[in-house]
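Quick one, probably user error.
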């Protein structure tokens, strides 16, 4: 499907981006853009194209699956800084950070040390924030800083596989005043892509998950935890 909305293609809307189709007739779904602009069949500079799983009719709508955050990360590029000034953003696909990036929210003025900016994942078995993509070192997210963000999953009882903060392929990570909650893992250092982790986790809260902190890796890891809480999880810190 090639669609051409009445816009100038926004910055950060690129191939691989995710949109959420909802309303009207047809089951709501997340779609991945196969391409944008004139690279779409019969497309103009304002077009997007994708293959939906379901038919959609009536007054349906198309919007960013991450409340505009993925587009902001894409547009900022390597070395960029994205500030999320919203209170609550409901998302339907993982926010993927795939390069050096600083992602900042705000601290609650009522409860000191708890991030007031919240990303709530609405799709079961889906990560909230994913750092890096599969494919070896070339797809690693390095020198990522995340601060003052709450990442909330769908369920923290182990029935859902989604992770709040998933270091899928990353190194030299810094988390400060981050809360990971209601997910399978509040924070997951995943060795599937053979990264050796170097990370500093300061004043963070991993609460109400199946695993609070889940570590899979070997002796090359250098993880420093300072002033964090890991509470009300099935397993507090689980080192595989």
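Nope, works fine. Designed sequence:
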């Amino acid at each position: 499907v090639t669609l051409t909305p009445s816009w100038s293609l926004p910055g950060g809307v690129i191939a691989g981006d995710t949109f959420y189709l909802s309303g009207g007739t047809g089951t709501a779904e997340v779609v991945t853009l196969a391409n944008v602009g004139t690279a779409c069949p019969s497309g103009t500079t304002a077009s997007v194209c994708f293959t939906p799983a379901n038919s959609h009719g009536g007054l349906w709508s198309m919007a960013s699956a991450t409340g505009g955050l993925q587009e902001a990360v894409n547009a900022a590029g390597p070395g960029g800084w994205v500030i999320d000034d919203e209170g609550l953003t409901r998302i339907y696909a993982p926010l993927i950070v795939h390069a050096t990036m600083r992602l900042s929210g705000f601290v609650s003025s009522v409860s000191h040390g708890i991030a007031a900016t919240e990303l709530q994942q609405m799709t079961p078995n889906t990560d909230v924030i994913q750092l890096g993509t599969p494919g070896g070192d070339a797809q690693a997210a390095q020198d990522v800083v995340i601060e003052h963000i709450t990442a909330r999953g769908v369920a923290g009882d182990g029935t859902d596989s989604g992770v709040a903060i998933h270091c899928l392929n990353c190194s030299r990570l810094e988390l400060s005043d981050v809360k990971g909650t209601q997910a399978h893992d509040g924070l997951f250092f995943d060795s599937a892509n053979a990264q050796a982790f170097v990370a500093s986790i300061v004043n963070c809260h991993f609460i109400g998950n199946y695993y609070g902190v889940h570590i899979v890796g070997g002796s090359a890891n250098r993880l420093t935890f300072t002033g964090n809480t890991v509470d009300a999880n099935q397993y507090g810190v689980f080192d595989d």
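The first helix runs from residue 69 to 76.
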